[in-house]
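Quick illustration, no need to memorize.
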Amino acid sequence: MAVSSSAWSIPAAHTDGPTADELLAFVNRAAADPGILGRVPRRSEERTWISLPAPGGAEAWVIGWPPGAETGWHDHGGSRGAFATAAGLLREGSIAVELPHLGRQVLELADGVDRHRELPAGRGRAFGPHHVHQVVNPSRAEHAVSVHVYYPPLPLMRRYTRDDRILRLAKTEQSQEW
């Protein structure tokens, strides 16, 4: 089935790109489109993804999550974005603190900065340019599918390791690496 992106368009009236509300509305509409679910290949061992047309200069992806799949801790290189679950359930852990990136490889996190969300099918969330999180499909049996959008398109992603309250920059990936 062909999927039309015009049904989920983002107004082009903004010179600085789509707002967080517009990004969230886009992923919610796209996740509700029945044609989205069948477009992503499902593999039992790893996440899969396909690009999705995204208006307003944004970049969008549909991601398939096998049972137990997760992203690890990461950020989006200064892009703002949104994601919504189209099928299954995703859990997000995030850190409510802006991380300093210049010259800083290790950060001790204060108590109370962790946030946890459950995002069942039909639920999404937007985030700002300094968002650090990990996303997990907690199911042992069901695949999940989600729609993600970023503005500006992802220039890079920083990956982190976490040991209790210590967050450590592990790797910076450029867009051509994924």
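Residues 107 and 167 are 5 Å apart (CA to CA).
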